[in-house]
Structures are given as structure tokens and as C-alpha cells.
Amino acid sequence: MARIVGIVTTKRDSAGGGAPIFYAEDRAQLEAVAHLLEKVLDCAAHALNEDLFIVVDRH
Fold it and tell me: Rg of the Cα trace of the chain?
């Protein structure tokens, strides 16, 4: 069963819910943080749009 373990966004009003939310200053930082979380958490980062990534655990 997959679960969202984190959200990374550049827009403060675009995300909510129970998962931790990480805010990035720009697109470059957004991608860097999402990919770092992907590696550290052994998960998968998925871009939902140009301002939002979700980090998903499938274990």
C-alpha cells in the first residue's frame, strides 16, 4: 500500500493535509529537496505539476 510521506511545494496555498510539507523558494530548490527526500527516505518523488512534488512510500 502506498502512502504520501511528504509534500514539496513552492506555493504555500497549494498543499495541506497530514503529511509534512516542505516549502521551496524556486523550481531548482523544489527539485533538489524532492530528490534529496526521495534518497533519504528510500521513496519515490513524483511531480504533480511545476510547483508540487509528492514523496511516496510503496514499502
Answer: 10
| Burial of 6: CB neighbours in 10 Å, binned 0-12, 13-18, 19+ | buried
Closest CA to 54 of 26, 28, 22, 29: 22
Digit-coded pLDDT (tens) for 9-54: 999 888 888 999 999 999 999 999 999 999 999 999 999 999 999 9
Quick one: pLDDT at residue 33?
98
Alpha-carbon 7 to chain mean position? 3
| Closest C-alpha to 6, from 32, 30, 31, 34 | 34
Q: Among the residues of the chain, which ranges form H helices?
A: 27-41
